[in-house]
Amino acid sequence: MSVMIAGRPVGPGCPVYVIAEIGLNHNGDVEVAKQLIDVAADAGVDAVKFQKRTPELATPPHMRDVVRETPWGAMTYLEYRHRVELDREQYIEIGDHAMLRGLTWFASPWDEPSVAFLEALNVAAYKVASASVTDLALLRTIAGTGRPVILSTGMSTLEQIDAAVAALDADERLIVLHATSTYPMPASEANLRMIPVLAARYPDVPVGYSGHEPGLQISLAAVALGATAIERHITLDRAMWGSDQAASLEPRGLERLVRDVRVIEEALGDGIKRVQPGELAPMAKLRRVRA
């Protein structure tokens, strides 16, 4: 079973779908967002993803008045959330830039008004953040759009994932990503063997991996284990301000990731044993007994 996103099939037997998660790493700056889109396009990814919130709804009440230091001075967490949100015109600008660079773009809505906001922009798909797995009302709203859905599964039990999959009710439009929501994530928490477990649990749903580790090895191992999509945060510089920057790939790292993903998916082959063309000459030279 494959899922179509803007005309691109995602699933077993298809090229791995590589998503560059810009998220909030633009820090509310459209020019930084466009630079990150350029980084993603130059690396050869398939899509870029953002995050959309209605700050008053998406910010937990106990966090709203917490004061934090930011590059724009001390402000409450709610004020910070407003500061980094992009408005409709800004999304149109970055969406146009992504399309001009040949990339699909979409976002993670964190609340129901954000779904309406993104619907008005005709996004290609929706991504459900791990934090939203248990928000079944939000999931049903997303399902109601009829668009493809990518579901991350960090900080969730299998029972919670089952409930989310049922609420989305979108087997022919659903992609599930194994994830661990630690930033940055140590190898000991990756638990990549969950990829085949999820694939067996949801046999008609493509399964991929959303990574928050600092390097490349774990994401590449996920491809070897059958991940049909890979999502990684990207940044211009891991030293930039922001909670996701340290768990993100810089431009050179993203280029290497895409390069190595393509090598691995080619190397996996089809699982049918045959004599390869390159073996014919060695076989003629080295095999003493003919079959």
UniProtKB/TrEMBL annotation:
Domain PseI/NeuA/B-like: 36-273
SUPFAM superfamilies xrefs: Aldolase (SSF51569)
Species per Swiss-Prot/TrEMBL record: Microcella alkalica
Record's protein name: N-acetylneuraminate synthase
Keyword tags: Transferase
Pfam families per record: NeuB
E.C. code: 2.5.1.56
Domain of life: Bacteria
An individual GO BP term: carbohydrate biosynthetic process
UniProt keyword annotation of Transferase present: yes
GO MF terms, alphabetically ordered: N-acetylneuraminate synthase activity; N-acylneuraminate-9-phosphate synthase activity
InterPro entries listed in its UniProt record: Aldolase_TIM (IPR013785), PseI-like (IPR051690), PseI/NeuA/B-like_N (IPR013132)
